[in-house]
Amino acid sequence: MTTSVWNGAGRRIELCDVGLRDGLQMEAQFVPTEDKIALVNALSHAGLSKIEVTSFTSPTAIPALRDAEVVMREIERRPGVTYTALVPNARGAERAIESRTDELNLVMSVSETHNLANLRMTRAQSFAALAQVITMAQAAQVPVNVSLSCVFGCPMEGDVALDAVWEHVQRFADLGVAGITLCDTTGMAFPTQVGQVVAAARARWPGMAFTLHFHNTRGMGLANVLAAIDVGAQRFDASLGGLGGCPYAPGATGNVCTEEVVHALQLMGYDTGIDLPALIATAARLPALIGHEVPSQIVKAGCRLDLHPVPAGFDAIRERALAR
Amino acid sequence: MTTSVWNGAGRRIELCDVGLRDGLQMEAQFVPTEDKIALVNALSHAGLSKIEVTSFTSPTAIPALRDAEVVMREIERRPGVTYTALVPNARGAERAIESRTDELNLVMSVSETHNLANLRMTRAQSFAALAQVITMAQAAQVPVNVSLSCVFGCPMEGDVALDAVWEHVQRFADLGVAGITLCDTTGMAFPTQVGQVVAAARARWPGMAFTLHFHNTRGMGLANVLAAIDVGAQRFDASLGGLGGCPYAPGATGNVCTEEVVHALQLMGYDTGIDLPALIATAARLPALIGHEVPSQIVKAGCRLDLHPVPAGFDAIRERALAR
Fold this sequence. Notes:
Family (chains A, B): Belongs to the alpha-IPM synthase/homocitrate synthase family. Belongs to the HMG-CoA lyase family.
Oligomer: homodimer
Keywords (chains A, B): Lyase, Metal-binding, Pyruvate, Transferase
Number of helices of chain A: 14
Distance between the termini of chain A: 45 Å
Radius of gyration of chain A: 21 Å
Pfam family, one (chains A, B): HMGL-like
CATH topology of chain A: TIM Barrel
CATH architecture of chain A: Alpha-Beta Barrel
Strand order of the largest sheet of chain A: 1-2-3-4-5-6-7-8
Organism (chains A, B): Acidovorax ebreus (strain TPSY) (Diaphorobacter sp. (strain TPSY))
Protein name (chains A, B): Pyruvate carboxyltransferase
Shape of chain A: globular
Structural class of chain A: alpha/beta
CATH class of chain A: Alpha Beta
Largest sheet of chain A: 8 strands, parallel, barrel
Number of strands of chain A: 8
C-alpha cells in the first residue's frame, strides 16, 4: 500500500483538547471546579499531549471559567503534557503565569470586523497589547502560542485576504512566538482551501509550530483535518465531546470532536498516543456536567467494532429460515 | 495546482438522494402523499440525477411508505433523472414495474447475521429470491441496481470478509445487473478501508456502475466520500437533510447529508449538477413535515459565505476603539 493521507503508517499526530476552554466558556451551567480538575486529569491520563485548561479572562465576562486559577493550580501535572490557557491581556497573563501555566495562548482575529466585534479593539490595538503580553511571557520564560481567528473566513466579512493572515504570522514570528494556531473560528474552511493555506504557511515559516483549529459547523471538520495532514500538518485542536458551538449558527456543531478525530485517525493508522476508550469514557461524563447531550457521534454510537447483540428471537428466525 | 482529490477540477459526481426512502421509512410521522410528491419534484428541479422515490415493501411492514404507487405515479418525470425505488421481492417488483419505476433497487446483506435479522432469510435464500426479481425486471426491460448491505462491517458480526462481498458482486454481475451499491449500512466504514474496497471493486469489475452509500454515524461520512473519489468513485447515495438514523445507534446521525456533500464538493471544485440553494430550501421543508429537526449542518448554519450582520452597536464599538 502506498503512503498517502489515507494511510497513517504510524505517523504521529498531536492533539490539543480545547473542550474545557472553547467548550465550557459558552455553557450556561457552571461546571464545579473539582469536576473541571477531574476532566483535565482524565485527559492527561488518556494521553493528550496538550490541554487548554481554562481562560484567564475577566470572571464577570466569562463566569463559567471564573475558577481559572484554582483549576490551573490543582490539576495533576503529567510529564510531557503541556497545560495551556487562553490569555486575553496583560492582567490575564499575570494570573496565568502566577498559576504556573505552561504556555500562554493569545488570541486575535485577522478580520478587522471580527476583532472589533469580539475584542472591541482594532487589529493594530490587539497586536500592540499582545506584543506587551509576549514580552511579559518571555521575561517569565513561558512559551507563547498565538491563535489567529477567522483565517479561513470571517462570518461578517466573508473571505479574508491571505495577505492579512501572512502579515500577522510574520509579525508574531518576529516577536519569537513558539507556535501559531490557524483557526477556522466559525466553520468556513473547506479542504481545498485548507491544503493551500497550510502548505503555504509551512513553506514560508518552516520553523514555526503551526496548529490547525477547525469547527465542524458545516460538516467538513474531519475532511479539513485530513486535507491539512496531506500537506504536512501534525498538530490539531479538538474538543472533548465536540463541545463549543458557534454564536453565528445556533444548533450547529462546534469544534471538531476529539474522540471522533482520534477514532478516525487511529483506524487510518495514525499514532495519536491517546487511549481511545479512556477518552470516550471522559467525554461520556460531560452530559451530566453540562446538562445536555454533546455533539459527539462516538459517545452516541460507540466505536466501529463495538458490536450489538442479535435481535430477540434470532435463533427462531434462523431455524424458520433454514427449515424452508 | 496539481489535480488531487482535494481539487475537483470540474469532475462530475453523481448523487442519488435516498431521503424519501432510507429517511422517511423510519419516521414516526406519516408525511402526506402530496408532500412526498412535492419533495421529489423539488429534488428533480434541483438537479439530482437519481432519486430513490419510495419502497415497494408491505404497507403493514413500513406504513410510512404505504403510498408507494401513488407517489411513483404522480411525480413529474424530468428527462435525465432516474426515479428508482427499493424492491424487496417479486410482489414489490410487480408493483414497482406497474408504477413505471425507472430502476429497481434490490437489497440484501453480505453478512449472514444481518440478512437473517433484517430480511429473515439466509443470504442464499435472498439471492435466489432476488435472482427471480431480476428475471422479471429484465422481461419488463427495467434496469436493476443491487444494494449490498454491511460491505464495510456488520453491527453484529463485525468485519465482513471481503470474499463474501466479491462473491455477491460476481453473482449479481453474472445476472447482468446495471449497478451495485456498496453500502456502509451502520457507519462502520473508514477512509483507508473505503479506498481499498472501492479500488479493488473497480479494478475487478471495470464495467460495473458502483455507487457508494455511507452513513455519518461516527462522523466519517464526508471523509469516506473523498476517499472513494480518490480511487475513482463517481456515484454516491446521500439523504436530504441527513435523514435516516440507525437502529443500532439511537441519536446518531444517519446517511451522509445531500446538501452537506454538495456544499463541500462544490467548494472543492466538483460538478454535481445540483442547484445548492434550491436543495437547501427543499431540505428546510423537512422539519415541518416530520416533526423534528434534521441532522443537516447546512440547514442550521447555512453556506460558508452566508454572512451575518455585525453586532448591535458595532459603529459605537469602532468609534470608541479608534478614539483610544
